[in-house]
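Q: I'm writing up a methods section and want to include an example of the input and output format. Could you take the sequence below and give the corresponding predicted structure tokens, formatted cleanly so I can copy it straight into the document?
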Amino acid sequence: MPPLVPDMSDDESTGESIPYDDALEAKRGSATKDEDEDEEAEEDVYTVEKIVSHEWAKNGDLLFQVKWHGYDDPADMTLEPEGNLLEGAKEVVEEYFRRLGGRPEKPQAQPKKRKSMGRPPKSTPEKMPEPKKRRKSRAETATETPDEEQVDDNDGNASDGTSTWMPKSRNWEGEVDSVETIIREPGTSNLLAFLNWKNGKKSKVSIELCYDKCPKKMLAFYESHLVFKDG
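A: Here is the clean output for your methods example:
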């Protein structure tokens, strides 16, 4: 007779047993994970609501300004190449072309103008500013004479024996022979100089004008009247 086979429990025949509850929870966790991944995948899908405008990239690609569904902030709009929209938003692209009356054409590059090698343009000569007129002093204005010689009477002499003649030149050093004397005009504080001219005439002129026209003659007059005391 063959030997008897001893009875074996379920644990001994199948090895370590897996609790039923643990296996069920593991299965549920795996299903929940798959659902979360599906939801995340759905959230990553953006829907084109409309195309607002377009522009051309430097490489010649057509770019669309896209407004996405559910995003109303203009800052959320993006520039997308045409190839990115043909797969999932081809109808939106075609609708945009219909609004424009057809597919937009790429603008032609403007040829650069060649610089002319001709003569440079003539420059307009600048106008030189007119010289400013020198402002006359009070002494010159007071004793200014006309172009013709002035006389106080028919003889050309004033009542005190002096003439009103004065040369037209600006510098009198070569015209004055000497300064005869200096007096104070009666009733005023003005000083008048009696000048002897080399042409034989004598004139009475304001001291300020003499300082301007013949300063060396005035200095010679003062030096000739200096009085030195013995030390």
